[in-house]
Write a structure and sequence with these properties.
The chain has helices spanning about 5-25, 40-65, 80-100, 105-120, 140-160, 170-185, 240-245, 250-255, 265-275; strands at about 130, 135-140, 195-205, 210-215, 220-225, 230-235, 260-265. The longest helix has 23 residues, at about 40-65. It is α+β, with helices and mostly antiparallel strands and about 280 residues long. A hairpin with a 4-residue loop joins strand 4 and strand 5 (about 220-225).
């Protein structure tokens, strides 16, 4: 498990590199669609500003013993995944509109403030609870959460303008650690199946391993692969697996591009995206 300090250091490097990249963007590119559905590039930056400010305030208040909601925010745990996504989307666009020409300057300031806050977290604060719209959570949860946010959204911005864009290599081991939970967040349950479907992913590259997604229709679990035969086996690189499970890449597109090689029941391969959809 990566430490909070490691997450903070990597996320700071990613944010600084993104800042340099944004300085090079022509004005018109800020209003191009990003790889994040329904958001322009400027909206993604607005979202990162909003999240950085939210996390900084939540951690700072939590370390003082204050776990009450931020002003204008719902009680912890009051929103489900879909409602939280709608809430953050609304806030991101409002943030971008409100800042106008100050978006990039504010992004630089807010991310620096958050990284200073994350670097000050100490191990003894692991059990200190902080407010978050999803639930009250330990302060040490915020560094990996922010790493996830800034790394994926940096890719969303770059990938929309450069098809060769890739995730920060140093972030891949940490993103892989989050996939079991993320897979469950993205899972959309349906009717319970008569027999579960087992998808196996053989992953090579930066983080290699073999992982199973066991789908029972109404629930699913991601686990290390065992000896039980899989209905569908997919072979891919680490980055491809992360982008797939983080809903940045569809299985169909990945197969067409040759990024994933599939063995087994093609019908079940097609059904994969009826269960695993992004938020």
């Amino acid at each position: 498990m990566a430490t909070a300090e490691t997450c903070a250091l990597i996320s700071r490097a990613v944010a600084e590199e993104l800042t340099q990249y944004l300085h090079t963007l022509p004005r018109e590119d800020w209003h191009r669609p990003s790889a994040c559905d329904a958001w322009e590039v400027c909206d993604v930056v607005g979202h990162l500003i909003w999240v950085a400010r939210m996390y900084t305030e939540e951690i700072t208040r939590g370390l003082r013993g204050d776990t009450s909601p931020l002003e204008g925010f719902p009680p912890a745990g009051a929103l489900d995944t879909a409602a939280y996504s709608a809430f953050t989307a609304q806030q991101a666009i409002a943030q971008r509109v409100r800042l106008g020409e100050q978006v990039l300057t504010t992004f630089t300031t807010r991310t620096a403030q958050l990284h200073d806050c994350l670097m000050r977290l100490q191990l003894h604060e692991d059990t200190t609870l902080c407010y978050h719209p999803f639930r009250l959570m330990p302060a040490q949860m915020f560094p990996p959460l922010w790493l996830n946010e800034v790394t994926l959204h940096a890719w969303d911005i770059r990938a929309a303008l450069d098809p060769t864009a890739s995730l920060a290599v140093e972030s891949l081991p940490l993103l892989m650690e989050r996939l079991p939970r993320r897979a469950m967040v993205n899972f959309r349950p349906g009717a319970r199946l008569a027999a579960p479907v087992r998808y196996r992913f053989t992953v090579t590259g930066v983080v290699s391993g073999t992982y199973d997604l066991l789908v029972q229709g109404d629930q699913a679990v991601m686990e290390p692969a065992g000896t039980t035969a899989a209905h569908v086996t997919c072979h891919c690189q680490t980055e491809t697996f992360v982008l797939l499970m983080m809903d940045r890449l569809s299985l169909e597109v990945a197969i067409e591009r040759g990024d994933i090689r599939v063995e087994g029941d093609r019908g079940l391969a097609a059904a994969f995206e009826t269960w695993f959809k992004g938020v």
